[in-house]
Design a protein that fits this description.
Layout lengths: L6 E4 L1 E3 L7 H4 L12 E5 L8 E2 L9 H7 L12 E8 L5 E3 L3 H7 L7 E8 L4 E6 L5 H9 L7 E5 L5 E4 L5 E2 L4 E8 L5 E4 L15 H7 L13 E4 L2 E8 L4 E13 L9 E14 L2 E6 L3 E4 L6 E13 L1
Antiparallel strand pairs: 1-4, 1-19, 2-3, 3-5, 5-12, 6-13, 7-10, 7-12, 8-9, 8-11, 14-15, 15-16, 16-20, 17-18, 17-19, 17-20
Helix pairs in contact: 4-5
Length: about 325
């Protein structure tokens, strides 16, 4: 009988050219890579799998563990989510993601619905979120070909605590000086349409995917997303950040003790990502220490557990 208790995860690290060093310096991520652009904190995607970092199965990939013990994940047909930390020292490319139906036909992968929680942002930081005004597909292509796309995008000022929900087909780009937690579908399909003329590690311009991007992009302007209200519950402030068919994401600011009671009512697993502070997660018969950057997998069917300390967490449930 599998002992259904939480365990720590170690992330896969990505060193994209726009990345910085904050994930190492502030979140304790360990890597020999110079840039730590992304840490894939909860991932069974073959492009970057999380490794179990505590307990009986330490050293095993999360994907391998769930293949042996599907009941710990709630036995979904495929692993549904990917949780990341992203440190944008420089601007990311302007890009778009397809929906499930397009991605499965053209990429043999899932589409990508995602949400961003802004952990920190430099003064005057901006990101791209759709278009200012509606464009036709022909006007979109012309703007890409004539290198005038940035004249038409919606540039949004960003501050700590902002939340963005990015549906498939939404043109977007994280701007420089922004540190975010990203919760998304388990997918690695991205179509770049503009990359500031940058060169990749091979000294050549990075690949663009203009035709596919034009096919999947919705050129209608997007309304700004509004997350749930923050609610005081005992020693914690709880805020629902986003909910969709793929994930439900809640932020907890804890100053003392808070029970996370919804896990036992869910058929699927859940995940804790500590974005500030420290404490402990405790359950009947065990506990784990938490610090900034800790990533914890909570098996499906887990009894309610308690987080003690002074910390802020992003809690993702499926």
């Amino acid at each position: 009988m599998l002992d259904m208790t939480p365990f720590l995860l170690s992330p896969a690290i990505k060193d994209y050219i726009w990345g910085g060093t904050r994930l190492r310096e502030e979140f304790g991520k360990v890597s020999d890579l110079e840039r730590l652009a992304e840490s894939w904190e909860l991932s069974c995607h073959p492009d970057g799998e999380s490794i179990i970092a505590s307990g009986e199965y330490k050293g095993m990939t999360l994907a391998g563990f769930l293949k042996e013990h599907p009941e710990a994940g709630g036995a979904p047909e495929e692993f549904p989510v990917l949780v990341k930390l992203i440190d944008a020292r420089n601007d990311l490319s302007v890009q778009v993601h397809p929906d499930d139906s397009y991605a499965r036909v053209h990429e043999n992968d899932n589409g990508k619905t995602e949400m961003w929680y802004v952990i920190d942002a430099e003064e005057d930081a901006h990101l791209v979120y759709g278009f200012r005004d509606k464009l036709s597909k022909e006007e979109f292509r012309k703007a890409v070909e004539e290198n005038t796309l940035m004249e038409y995008v919606n540039r949004v000022p960003v501050k700590k605590g902002d939340v963005f929900f990015i549906t498939p087909g939404t043109l977007h780009a994280i701007g420089k000086g922004i540190l975010i937690a990203e919760i998304q579908q388990s997918s690695n399909v991205t179509y770049r349409v503009y990359d500031y003329g940058r060169l990749g590690a091979d000294g050549k311009p990075r690949e663009l995917h203009v035709d596919k991007a034009i096919e999947v992009t919705d050129t209608e302007p997007r309304a700004m997303y509004v997350p749930g209200e923050a609610v005081q519950e005992g020693d914690a402030v709880r805020q629902l950040l986003a909910e969709c068919r793929y994930f439900r994401v809640t932020k907890y600011d804890i100053s003392g003790s808070a029970e996370i009671a919804d896990c036992g009512r869910r058929k699927g697993f859940s995940h804790i990502l500590v974005i500030d502070g420290q404490g402990d997660v405790e359950w009947q018969g065990g506990s784990l220490p938490l610090k900034k950057g800790s990533s914890v997998f909570v098996p499906a069917g887990m009894d309610p557990f308690i987080i003690k300390g002074r910390c802020s967490i992003i809690y993702t449930a499926v």
